[in-house]
Amino acid sequence: MPALSSSKGTAEKSKTTTSSPPSLSPFLQVTFFLSSISLDPRRPHRTLPSSGREDPALRRPRHRRPIQGRRHLAGPARLRPDLPAPRLRPSPEALPLLLYIHGGGFCLQSAFSRTYHDFVSTVAAEAGAIAVSVEYGLFPARPIPACYEDSWAALRWVAGHAGGDGAEPWLNQHADFGRVFIGGDSAGGNIPHTLAARVGSIGLPRGVKVVGVVLVHPFFGGTDDDEMWLYACQTNGGLTDPRLKPAKEDLARLGCEKVLVFVAEKDHLREVGVEYCEELKKSGWRGSVELVENVGEDHCFHLRDPKYDKAVELKDKIVSFIKHN
Question: Are 101 and 188 in contact (CB under 8 A)?
């Protein structure tokens, strides 16, 4: 898959495809109610299949206590035929879907870490949503743009279930593809912008609609961290690369209706987050953007102590954004 951007903009200029749903990558893992997608062969899976028996072909280290309620699938070459169907409570209506992209400076963290599992599953439970958390390739094993490519592949795979004939019955039967949200924090707060710009340019299969984007303390160009990003992306377009410094044309074409941006007062990324909102408003984009400042707080403080009152406020704001849009 080509990189998601060039020096002229992040979005590809091609027609929306209506072909059959994208197949799972051989290294894809899906976990529900927090669903975790792993597209990177170099990052080991960390959980058991829902059958409780380890499949040597999947090469997953054994968990002493598998997290209850998870549903695991691998790609076609490694799909266990004896996995039991998930036990679902009947849902009176389809559920909104959140695609979440973890932070970690493009080189750390995981969708399977306790920190991100707890945060995303809590948001999903309280918002009454299905969450899909992306396990994307990390530098140096897989340099940038792997993170963008993997996240786009994950979004495309999820969207491929809109016709009800995808690989995962949870999505086929219970996801509302007219209410899709994309979110992330820190480095993972940078990637959703690129995805939304691409959605605005070429769309998603079967008319899937991205309603909102949530950026928590997002990384964008304009700080000393730029050198880190440029080093991790050897095919970069310099300080004006649109993945680093969002281009006006990409902002104008964001394929969503609403954007929610959080910045923290003591975060060195505060100013670039504020600037993103200002540039988005001036771009001609027809959606609405809301900026929330976490006064007195530092970068991604909410992940360090989820029970802290301001962390709860941040989480509740995201939950409300999903439930009421």
Answer: yes
Contact 319, 121 (CB under 8 A): no
Residue 110's alpha-carbon distances to 40, 45, 167, 231, 277, in angstroms, are 11, 10, 23, 21, 27
- Residue 202 tokens read as 């070429």
Cα–Cα distance for residue pair 110/138, rounded to 1 Å: 9
Q: Dihedral sign, CA of 275, 281, 282, 287?
A: positive
Beta bridge partners of residue 37, listed in sequence order = 134
- Which residues belong to the active site? 186, 267, 299
Taking alpha carbons only, the member of 282, 223, 271 closest to residue 249 is 282
Could you tell me the two tokens for 6?
């060039």
Task: List, in sequence order, every residue forming a beta bridge with 180; answer none if it has no partner.
Answer: 97, 210
Planar angle of CA 40, 163, 180, nearest 5 degrees: 60
Neighbours of 102 (CB within 10 A): 28
Residue 21 has pLDDT above 70, yes or no: no
Continuous H helices in the chain:
114-127, 146-159, 169-174, 187-202, 226-232, 248-252, 270-282, 301-304, 309-323
CB distance 148 to 3 below 8 Å: yes
Q: Are 55 and 75 in contact (CB under 8 A)?
A: no
Residue 33 to residue 44: CA distance in whole angstroms:
20
By mean pLDDT, which of 6-15, 106-115, 143-152, 175-184 is the weakest? 6-15
Q: State the Cα–Cα distance between residues 270 and 290, nearest whole angstrom.
A: 15
Cβ atoms of 279 and 86 within 8 Å: the answer is: no
Of the pLDDT bands very low, low, confident and very high (cuts 50, 70, 90), residue 170 is confident
3-state secondary structure of 215: strand
16, 203 Cβ separation under 8 angstroms: yes
pTM over 0.85: no
pLDDT digits (tens, 9 = 90+) for 220-243: 999 999 999 999 999 999 999 999
